[in-house]
Each structure stands twice: as C-alpha cells, then as structure tokens.
C-alpha cells in the first residue's frame, strides 16, 4: 500500500524539504541535513500518521531497500512485520513509534527482528524520539536504529556454550508422607539417570546426608515411579541408593532437553527441583515437562554459567549409548569401589543382558576413555 499523494496546497513534506536543493527552505539548516544524511546511524523520520517521511543513506543499507521504497512504507501496515525474540509478531500498539505518538515520550533500547523485502531477517535495536510543534503536539518521530544481528548471533553462540542452572518449585503435598518435613529442609542429590532400554526404563542413583539409610530407602520406595530400590552404601553419614523406574520421572525431563538433574530439595511448604540445561534451551520447556507430574510447578530462578569442553563431552561423543550407559551405571552403582557395592551379575540383570555382553560394553567404554586420556586429549598435554 503506497502513501497518499501530498496536498499541493499544503506545507511541503519533510521528505521534500530534506531533499530540496534550496537551503533556505530546509526545516533544518543545510549542514544539519547533510550531517543527517551521512550519519553512520540508520535513521528514519515518521510522520504523525505513521508514514516514513525520510530515510538516510545508512537506513537504506540496514533495511535493504531504496529511499523510494522506504518512504512508501507505513508503520503498522499489513506488510510491515516485526517480531520479538521468541518469533512472535509484535502488535502495532507496542511499536516504539506508536508509543511515542501516543505519549510524546522517547523510547530507548527497543529490540526486535525485522523481515526485509528479500526475506532475510535482521535484529535491530532502536531509539525513538518525538519532534513536536509549537503547541507541543508530536508532528514527527525520529527513529535511530542499528543492525546488531551479528552481535546477537555471537551472544547466542556464547549462550550455547554455557549451561543454565534452573530451579523449579511446587507444593509440598506432592511428596510421600515419609518425605514431608516439619522444619528445615532435606536435600536429595540426583547423581545420575541411566537409560536401560528403549522402553523408557531407567536406573537412578541418588544420595543424601539428611536421612538415615533406612529412612531414605523407605522414602524412595514410596515414590510411585520406583519399583525396585536398594541401598548401595553409607559413608560419613551420606547414603546412596539405586532405584529402578519403568516410567518417566521429573529427572528425565532435564535429560530429554540435553541437561541433567541436580537435586530435589524438600521443605515444609514446598519442593524444589534443581537441574542444569544447555544455555540455549528455554527453561519453559522444562517447566512444561515437569507440569505433567506437578501441574502447579513454577520457575523460580535461572543462572547462566560457563561450561568449557571437558573430557566428559569427548567421551560421550566417542561411546555408543549402550557403552556409555554401562560405564555410567558401573561407576555410580559402586562397581569400581572397594569393596564393590554392585557386582557384574547385578548390573547385567539391570540391563537384561548376559554378564558377557555387559562386560563387553564396559571394557569398550573403559578403553575409549583411556584412549582419549593417553592417545588423544592427553597427548597434547604431555
């Protein structure tokens, strides 16, 4: 939709004035016009009806259109689309130009995606300020903006190399009676969740210093998900258990999103689920997953922390799923401890494979780890 023709009997439009060769008729002085046009900051001038009246040279580069095209655009028209960071279309009433026209106040630091005529999208940050007449009415809005798409992409790349610590809370009544706390709080560490098969069965390794060993086993047995719980060890007041689950649990929500659970904290009036997610994963996805178990759960905190590439990441890439599961289960079940708290027969039973098959998975996993340590990653450190 093109802009309407200007009334020949009316005042000269700002577009005509700014491009006029007669310095005496320019609204600003000639120097100001020239400075405006060569400014390294993309700038457009919008009239009170939302039509773009003028654009400087930098704006044509940022918007990917000629001046003739730009001055035919109108904020809020059907073909003018700007989006927020989630990809949702921003309503016209939230546009910075709309806000300035309605309030007469400047808007700073507004960020959005803009779809250009060629279909490409650019991430812009802008400031908008009113230009008023003698009566204080807004005649024009001056919009200065920058293309920060590359900066946005670098931030996203940095975020993807970070991990996001998250914490969710829900009502205390969702836990078994044996886990309800009158005062203080109990913390149960979720050490690992190992997938056993494609049918969704897992073995989860947990520990706590806040419950006696027998109380801990009883409490975990009361959780409906778990069908087989056994005490692995008790040392210096810290008890560890292994629990088999044949249905999905809250802990698996974190793993399904590329993260891992950290702990469950139980207080007298709430339960908190602590976990870690990749930096580029929206915590709301985890909240949606946890709501399948606890409908009233809410996100209460999140914190980005740097996560460098570790031997763990390298090993995960090198091992098959079965090899990694065997190694993880062996470690967390105490197979490598002295004395052992789990035997090869017990672990092979967990995986429903023969002892020989389990040992093959475990030996291959151990060799891959040692190979990375001594022949790959470690060779550059020696």
Give the ordered list of helices and strands: HHEEHHEHEEEHEEEHEEHEEHEHHHH
Can you count the beta strands? 14
Helix content: 25-40%
Distance between the termini: 69 Å
Q: Main β-sheet, in a few words?
A: 8 strands, antiparallel
Q: Which segments are poorly predicted (pLDDT under 50) over 5 or more consecutive residues?
A: 6-24, 378-382
Q: Helix count, per DSSP?
A: 13
Structural class: alpha+beta
Number of domains: 3
Strand content: 25-35%
Report the principal-axis shape: elongated
Radius of gyration: 31 Å
* Mean model confidence by pLDDT: 84
How would you write the strand order of the largest sheet? 10-11-9-8-12-13-7-14
Structural overview:
The protein has helices spanning 14-19, 30-38, 57-63, 67-70, 96-103, 149-160, 213-221, 250-256, 283-290, 311-318, 321-332, 344-351, 355-376, and strands at residues 42-47, 52-55, 82-83, 107-115, 121-132, 138-147, 162-171, 185-195, 202-208, 226-235, 238-245, 260-267, 270-278, 298-306. It is an alpha+beta fold and 382 residues long. The chain has three domains: 14-154, PAS domain (Beta-Lactamase), CATH 3.30.450.20; 161-306, no CATH class; 309-382, Arc Repressor Mutant, subunit A. Strands 10-11-9-8-12-13-7-14 form an eight-stranded antiparallel sheet. A six-stranded antiparallel sheet has the order 2-1-6-5-4-3, sandwiched between helices. A hairpin with a 5-residue loop joins strand 5 and strand 6. The radius of gyration is 31 Å and the shape is elongated. The protein starts with 13 loop residues before the first helix and ends in a 6-residue tail after the last helix. Residues 6-24 and 378-382 have low confidence and may be disordered.
């Amino acid at each position: 939709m093109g802009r309407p023709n200007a009334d020949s009997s009316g005042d000269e439009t700002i577009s005509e004035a700014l491009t006029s060769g007669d310095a005496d008729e320019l609204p600003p002085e000639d120097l100001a016009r020239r400075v405006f046009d060569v400014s390294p900051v993309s700038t457009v001038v919008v009239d009170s009806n939302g039509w773009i009246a003028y654009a400087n040279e930098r704006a044509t580069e940022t918007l990917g259109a000629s001046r003739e095209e730009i001055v035919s655009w109108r904020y809020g028209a059907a073909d003018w689309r700007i989006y927020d960071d989630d990809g949702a279309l921003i309503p016209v009433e939230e546009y910075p130009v709309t806000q300035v026209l309605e309030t007469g106040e400047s808007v700073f630091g507004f960020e959005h995606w803009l779809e250009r005529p060629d279909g490409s999208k650019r991430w812009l940050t802008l400031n908008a300020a009113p230009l008023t007449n003698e009566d204080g009415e807004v005649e024009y809005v001056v919009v200065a903006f920058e293309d920060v798409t590359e900066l946005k992409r670098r931030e996203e790349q940095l975020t993807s190399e970070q991990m996001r610590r998250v914490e969710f809370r829900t009502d205390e009544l969702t836990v078994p009676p044996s886990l309800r706390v009158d005062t203080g709080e109990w913390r149960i560490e979720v050490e690992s969740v190992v997938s056993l098969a494609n049918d969704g069965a897992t073995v989860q390794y947990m520990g706590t210093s806040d419950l006696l060993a027998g109380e801990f086993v009883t409490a975990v047995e009361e959780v409906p998900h778990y069908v087989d719980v056994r005490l692995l060890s008790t040392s210096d007041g810290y008890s560890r258990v292994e629990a088999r689950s044949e249905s999905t649990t809250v802990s698996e929500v974190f793993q399904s999103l590329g993260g891992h659970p950290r702990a469950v904290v139980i207080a007298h009036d709430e339960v908190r689920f602590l976990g870690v997610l990749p930096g580029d994963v929206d915590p709301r996805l985890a909240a949606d997953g946890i709501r399948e178990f606890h409908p009233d759960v809410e996100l209460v905190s999140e914190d980005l922390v740097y996560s460098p590439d570790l031997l763990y990441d390298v090993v995960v890439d090198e091992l098959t799923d079965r090899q990694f599961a065997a190694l993880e289960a062996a470690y967390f079940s105490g197979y490598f401890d002295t004395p052992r708290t789990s035997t090869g027969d017990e672990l092979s039973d967990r995986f429903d494979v023969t002892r020989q098959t389990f040992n093959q998975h475990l030996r291959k996993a151990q060799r891959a780890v040692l190979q990375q340590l001594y022949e790959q990653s470690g060779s550059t450190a020696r």
